[in-house]
From TrEMBL:
Record's signal peptide: 1-22
Superkingdom as given in the UniProt entry: Eukaryota
PROSITE patterns the UniProt entry points to: THAUMATIN_2 (PS51367)
GO biological process: defense response
InterPro entries linked to this entry: Osmotin/thaumatin-like_sf (IPR037176), Thaumatin (IPR001938)
UniProt-listed SMART domains: THN (SM00205)
Organism: Aegilops tauschii subsp. strangulata (Goatgrass)
A Pfam family the protein falls into: Thaumatin
Residue pairs linked by disulfide bridges in the UniProt entry: 31-248, 79-90, 95-102, 158-237, 163-220, 171-183, 187-196, 197-207
Name of this protein: Thaumatin-like protein 1
Gene3D superfamilies membership: Thaumatin (2.60.110.10)
Keyword vocabulary terms for this entry: Disulfide bond, Plant defense, Signal
Length: 255
């Protein structure tokens, strides 16, 4: 095989490799304490290379995602091994696996969730930060403004999403959880249809913001505050950017 043929094969291999990788998620911990990120892939989508790990203060870790991946990311806090069983137990966001890897299990509420659908409708990425299942710590999602090979430029079409506010400090007393370590949603706390957008309230016309969801929305306007909060809370990005997910970012997303 001549040099032109070798170059063509290398180019095809590179294209195939990039097509199999949709994005790179970089987890950053700016909290004062260690957190344990958890990853839950949606049904029918390939898993990431990890479903959970330990992330010390100031540390970061990059995790590649396969093409068309969808799922949710979060951080567990206050984790320690149980002296009797040896299982990892977390104060908030526990997935119940007993280890750093969540192995297909989701976060127990209350927990702040970062949700993604990569390469969705129209080739767009869809992402949001949700407080629908409550809140345990600030989370910021930032798309890169660059371009990965084979994708159109994403500059100007993406926005940061998230909640940088300390909702635990302003959480209504009746929603406080874990001695103030987290803040429950009204649905989780009371189970009433008007808070859960269920039954007669299972549509945007009847399920409206409540005094509780408005506490979340006023503090975190770029986060989901209740189930039908789509117009101001779901963000899209073209061009296949990478994403940085920062825990305890210390600054609000840009307007």
């Amino acid at each position: 095989m001549g040099l032109p043929g070798c170059i063509a094969v290398i180019v095809l291999l590179l294209i195939s490799w990039r097509e199999g990788e949709a994005a790179m998620f970089t987890f950053v911990n700016r909290c004062a304490d260690t957190v344990w990120p958890g990853v839950l892939s949606n049904a029918g989508t390939a898993r990431l290379g990890t479903t959970g790990f330990e992330l010390p203060p100031g540390a970061s870790r990059a995790v590649p995602a396969p093409s068309a991946w969808s799922g949710r990311l979060w951080a567990r806090t206050g984790c320690a091994q149980d002296g009797a069983t040896g299982r990892l137990v977390c104060a908030t966001g526990d997935c119940g696996s007993g280890t750093a890897e969540c192995a297909g299990a989701g976060a127990a509420p209350p927990a702040t969730l970062a949700e993604f659908t990569l390469d969705g409708t129209g080739g767009l990425d869809f992402y949001d930060v949700s407080l629908v299942d409550g809140y345990n710590l600030p989370v910021l999602v930032e798309p890169s403004s660059g371009e990965r090979p084979g994708g159109a430029s994403s500059a100007g079409s993406c926005a940061s999403a998230g909640c940088a506010a300390d909702l635990n400090a302003m959480c209504p007393a009746e929603l406080r959880s874990g001695g103030g370590a987290a803040c429950r949603s009204a649905c989780d706390a009371f189970g009433r249809p008007e808070y859960c957008c269920s039954g007669a309230y299972a549509n945007p016309g009847t399920c409206r913001p409540t005094s509780y969801s408005q506490v979340f929305k006023m503090a975190c306007p770029r986060s989901y505050s209740y189930a039908f909060d789509d117009p101001t809370s779901t963000f899209t990005c073209a061009g296949g950017p990478d994403y940085t997910v920062t825990f305890c970012p210390g600054a609000t997303p840009s307007s």
